Amino acid sequence: MAELEIFRKTVGYLGTNCYILVNHDTGECVVFDPGGDAQELKELFQAPNFKLRGILLTHGHFDHIGAVRELKDAFGVPVYASVEEDRQVLGNPEVNLTTMFRHAMSLHADETLRDGQELEIIGARITCILTPGHTAGGMCYYIEEMQSLIAGDTLFCESVGRTDFPTGDAGVLVRSIREKLYVLPDETKVFPGHMDSTTIGWEKQHNMLVG
Description:
alpha/beta; Metallo-beta-lactamase, Chain A; 7 helices; 31% strand
């Protein structure tokens, strides 16, 4: 079994949690939601023990995609995102909010993912869990052998992601959490897009917004 570890780096002026999954046996890694600080991330991935192999996105909002283009250009790695559902968010600056907060940006995924797909990369098996609500194509990533979930802006510690942006839906978000995430083991560590980490068991007991 590969020796895997998750590192958190808070990036951008909204304090987005960017996560790096590293296989210490090979020095390979993937990055989730590189939302800013492109130069710092490029310097990190130039180190021999952080060989970047892919960029995985939980959704297409500006604070989660800000450094994607620079990393893709610098390292020639593919971008992964949900198959159809988040295409309009990634590709439309009005919907991904880049026109509101920074220069307009549109992106497309090189590799499109579907609900329930198992992605094998850098010696890890990552299950893709489609969790619409924050955006129509929100995608969480579950690494069973680590009992870890990269949750993006779907589930926070005792909170949930906003649903008042384009393609958001509060009822759909709550249903996604109950039906897709709360079925994971209680000890599953949750790594959210903002704020501190939590566990599925804690959220089932204390998250009043989900019920």
